[in-house]
TrEMBL record:
This is LacI family DNA-binding transcriptional regulator. GO terms for molecular function: DNA binding. CDD domains: HTH_LacI (cd01392), PBP1_LacI_sugar_binding-like (cd06267). Residues 4-58 form the HTH lacI-type domain. It comes from the Bacteria. Coiled coil: none annotated. InterPro entries: HTH_LacI, Lambda_DNA-bd_dom_sf, Peripla_BP/Lac1_sug-bd_dom, Peripla_BP_I. Keywords: DNA-binding, Transcription, Transcription regulation.
Length: 335
């Protein structure tokens, strides 16, 4: 059966289409008796507004675009849950793209979203993104933009991040207070904002306790599955760390597995803590200590900022960066 339209309702009730339209919107111009008549008939006939027609009329699609590096990443899947919770409550649909850590795919994603005439864009930058001209271009076209988690200082926009510095500082300090002094830091590519913030937190904790920073204990990993294992094997053999602090979900699991494969006892020989949103951290053997990013809260806050801008509740000129605290979750691996 074809979907019923406003014209169909108007014809059935012998009303004008403009009267039916106003009645469906609850307009004060229409008396209560007519509103009741129209609404009851619309419900009976299972009438639903045409989103395309509405978007043309209101010059809004009631949809927002989201671009993340990888949905399979626990952090991004939780952030998307936060975004969708806000969007649904405020009557918006969410269109999700993955960049798969590719700058070219990220640019293509942006073009597709603009082509779909989304009302705004939320993005966490890919691992290859070193220039933000594609984002500046959509801003020039009036598309509201919020960047979250992986941000760039080269783009002037609202931003939402975790307190990466403080989280890394607390992870490193905990390891130091547990008696560790040769703390390896296994992290993501150096061009990422989060990588540098967490490295600075690691350095600051070492400095507080007068432990010299050793660049040989810091290793950067690409995004291939084998990268972390090769790096951690090399660090274990050449640097003999007594603790490891990893900077992401992927690195935590790969490094943890590599240490176990070497037959090294955790935490007796090497203590271990991750900067992660792993839901299975407590199931590892031993249970993994983590600095937990507030992924849901980051997604929720970013979506609220974007929708407030779209609905003119927040000025485009009044851009700001919101930093959300991390949470320390200590378990057996770092004792």
């Amino acid at each position: 059966m074809e979907a019923i339209t406003i014209k169909d309702i108007a014809k059935a009730l012998n009303l004008s289409t403009s009267t039916v339209s106003r009645a469906l919107r609850g307009s004060y111009e229409i008396n209560n008796e007519t509103k009741k008549l129209v609404l009851e008939y619309a419900e009976k006939m299972n009438y639903h507004p045409n989103p395309i027609a509405l978007s043309l009329k209101e010059n809004r699609s009631k949809a927002i675009g989201v671009i993340v590096p990888e949905i399979a990443n626990n952090f991004f899947s939780q952030a998307i849950n936060g975004i969708e919770a806000v969007a649904y409550d405020r009557g918006y649909h969410v269109v999700i793209f993955q960049s798969h850590e590719s700058y070219e795919r990220e640019r293509s994603n942006i073009q597709h979203l603009v082509g779909r005439k989304v009302d705004g864009v939320l993005i966490s930058l890919s691992g290859q993104t070193t220039t933000v001209e594609h984002l500046q271009e959509i801003q020039k076209r009036g598309v509201p933009l919020v960047v979250f988690d992986r941000i760039s200082n080269d783009i002037i926009s609202n931003k939402v991040i975790a307190d990466n510095f403080q989280g890394a500082y607390e992870a490193t300090e905990h390891l130091i207070l547990s008696g560790r002094k040769r703390i390896a830091h296994i992290t993501s590519p150096s061009l990422l904002y989060t990588t540098n913030e967490r490295l600075e937190g690691y350095k600051a904790a070492l400095a507080k306790y007068n432990i010299p920073f050793d660049e040989n204990l810091v290793r950067y990993c690409g995004f291939e599955p084998e990268d972390a294992k090769q790096v951690i094997f090399e660090v274990l053999e050449t640097q003999k760390p007594d603790a490891i602090f990893t900077a992401s979900d992927r690195l935590a699991l790969d490094s943890f597995a590599a240490v176990k494969a070497k037959g090294i006892q955790i935490p007796e020989q090497v203590a271990f803590i991750g900067f992660t949103n792993l839901g299975v951290a407590h199931l590892l053997d031993p249970p993994l200590s983590t600095i937990v990013q507030p992924a849901f809260a980051i997604g929720k806050t970013a979506a609220e900022m974007l929708l407030d801008t779209i609905e003119n509740k927040q000025s485009n000129a009044a851009v700001k960066t919101i930093k959300i605290p991390t949470e320390v979750n200590l378990r057996t691996s770092s004792e």
